Known about the structure:
It contains 22 helices and 30 strands. It is 33% helix and 24% strand. Strands 14, 15, 16, 17, 21 and 22 form a 6-stranded mixed beta sheet that branches.
Amino acid sequence: MAALYEGYTLCAxxxxxxxxxxxxxxxxxERDSDHVLVTxxxxxxxxxxxxxxxxxxxxxxKQGQSLTCSAVFNFQTSEYVAVSDNKVIRIWKEDDPLLDKxxxxxxTSDIYRVLxxxxxEPVVLFQSGAVRLLDSLLSAPxxxxxxxxxxxxxxxxxxxxxxxxxxxxxxxxxxxxxxxxLYLQGLNPNSLQRYRLEREEPGLxxxxxxxxxxxxxxxxxxxxPNGRVYQSVTSVRAxxxxxxAQSLPVPRSLLLVLPVGExxxxxxxxxxxxxxxxxxxxxPHPSAGAGRDFLCIWNTNFQTLQAGKEMAGxxxxxxxxxxxxxxxxxxxTLSVIPFECPKSSLASALGKLKQAKSKESISSTFVPSWNSxxxxxxxxxxRTAETRVTRTTRNKSQSTTSPTxxxxxxxxxxxxxxxxxEEVERFLSRSDIQGLQPSVGRIASTLxxxxxxxxxxxxxxxxxxxxxxxxxxxxxxxxxxxxxxxRKDYFLCQLCLQFFPDIPEAVTCVxxxxxxxxxxxxxxxxxxxxxxxxFMETVILKERGVVSLQNGFSPTSVEDFSxxxxxxxSRTEVDETTFNQPGLKCPVGSHKxxxxxxxxxxxxxxxxxxxxxxxxxxxxxxxxxxxLHFLYVKCSQDHLLQVHGFRxxxxxQIMDWVCLLLDxxxxxxxxxxxxxxxxxxxxxFVKSQVKLVSELGKIEGSLQELDKMKTKRDIGQxxxxxxxxx
Length: 726
C-alpha cells in the first residue's frame, strides 16, 4: 500500500503579496534526482542538494529584469538555461559567479517555457505554440517564429516526454473562449496533433494537468475545481504529419471523484505517480472535514485513499515529483515528502492485508535515516534496544505488549514525566526498531509542543533517547533546539548540533549567541559529551605545560614523535617562531569552548550565515575571535591534537570562521581599541603564511619532479639513495 513518510524542509520562500502565488516558478531536476533547480517569481535561481537541504549555488539577474520561466539543466552540455524578460535566453555553468555575464541571445518572439529531460537536447516552446530545439534556435536567434495557435488561444500547461523510437514529444494544453485543447508536438520527425478536450460544467477550467507515456500512448490526467479527475488517452503516431489545423475530439474517462467540502477547489493539483496512484494536494481529507488541506495518495484502480498528510500553511496548488520524493510549497516553506507506491492488491488497498514480519518485508519498507542518506553504506546501523534499556526493562517489554504510536502520543499530552519516559522507552524497545523511523519525529514533536506549553514538564532523558536513534532532523522537529536552549539543556543542544545535518544558519547563530553568553562558572556545571570536553582539557593542559597519558600517547611517545618531525627543529619550535605568541591563554573555559567547537563543526552556507553573524555584539565578536585565534595557534603547534580521536574542529573549519567573523565585523573591529592587538597578531600570522607559501613556491618544481620519479621495487631491507635537485 502507498505510504507518505516524514518530510523535511528544502528551503524557505517569500509568497507574493496577494498570497495566491507561492513565489516559486518551478522546480526542475538537475544532474540527478538529488539536485534540483528552484526558480522564484522574481530574479533568482538556486541549486539545491536535496539530501543535504543546502544550496550549492545561486544566480540572480539585475534589478529591473525578471526571470519569466523556470531555469532548466542541459543534460548534454551540463549548462543551465533560463529566460529573462520573455525573449532573452541566458546560458551559464555552475562555476559562473554572475548571471549578467553569462551568454545571452535575444529571440524575436515571446518564450513560454524551456523544457529539458535527461539524454535529450532542451526544447524552447514559444507563446505562439511554435517549438524549436535550443541549438537550432541559438544558431539563428533572429529567425522568424510562426504562429501555431489561433487568436485568443493561450498556453496553460506544458511538459516534455521521451517516447519510443528515439522521439521527443512536447505536450501542452491551451484555452480559447472556454474550450481546452491538447497539442502533441513530435520532434525528429516533426509532427503536430491537436485534440479538443470535452467540456465540464460551464465556467469550470482544469486546475492542473499531468501526463505520462505508456505503450505508445499519452495519458493526460487533469483535475477540475469540482473534485473530478479525468483521464484522456491519445496514441502517438509514428509517421510525420501536421494535424494542427484540425481539432480531433478526444474522449475522457472519470478517474476519481475527490471530496471538495463546501464550494469549489481553488488551489489544488493532481500528479500521476504510476499506473495506479495519483498524488493530490489542496483537497480536504475525507474524514477531516473542510478547511484543512492535505497531501494524499489515491489508488485509482480501487478508488481508495491510501496515504494522507496534513500540510501546514497555505496551499498554492503546486506539486513536483522526482525519484520517490514529492516537493510541495506550503506556507512559507518548500517541503520534501518521501513516498512509495508498491503494487497493490485489493486486500492491501482496503487495508486488510496482513503485513509479513520477515526481515525482507521490514527492510523493503524501511525509510533511511539521515545518517544513511548522507553516508550511504558506510553509515553505522541504528542503536538497538540492547544499548538503550536495562535488562529489567528489556524483560518487562518482552513480556508485555508494546504501546502503539497513538497511545504514546495521547499519553505524552497528559501524563507526568516519569510515566512518559517509561512508555517511550517501551515503545523504542520494540524488536522492529527500523520501523520506528516515521514515529520518532511525531513523538519528538509532541514532547516539544507540551514542553513549550507547560513549563513544569520537560524530559531531557526521553529527548536524548530519541536523538540517539538518529532518526530525527531539524526540519522534522524545528523547535527542539530552541527548547533545549530555553531550558539550558546544553548537552541536548550539543547532540542536536552533532546529529542534525539541516540546521538553518539562523538557528546556528542563535546557539552561538547563547553559548558565548554563558558565564564560565555556569558552563562548567553542564554535563557535556566527554570527547569534546577532553579535547579542550588537553589543549589547556598543554598550554600550562602539563602533559599526561592521553588516548595511549605517553609523554615519551609525544617527545619522540615531535623529535622525528625534523632533524634540527621540531614542529612545535617552528610554529612558536612563526606565531610568536608566548603566554597565549584560552579566553574561555573548557566546557564553554567545547560548545563553541560544536558551532565550528556545523554545516552552513556563507551567503545565509553572514547576515545573522552580523547580529553578534562587538564584545562577543572579539571574544569569539580571540578564542578562534587561540584554538588555531594551539592546533597548528601540536599536530597530535588532530590525531587523538577527540571530536574537534579541523584547522580549515577554524580558519573559515575567522574569515567569516572578519567579514561580518571588520569595520567594528577596526574601530574598537580592544581588538587592535588581536588584529595585529592576525596580520603577523597572515604575513608569515604568505612568506611560507612564497618559499614553498620556489621549490615547487623540485617537488613535482620528486613526485614523478618512479620508486624502485627491489631496494632490499636497507638502501641509501642520493637525489640531486637541479
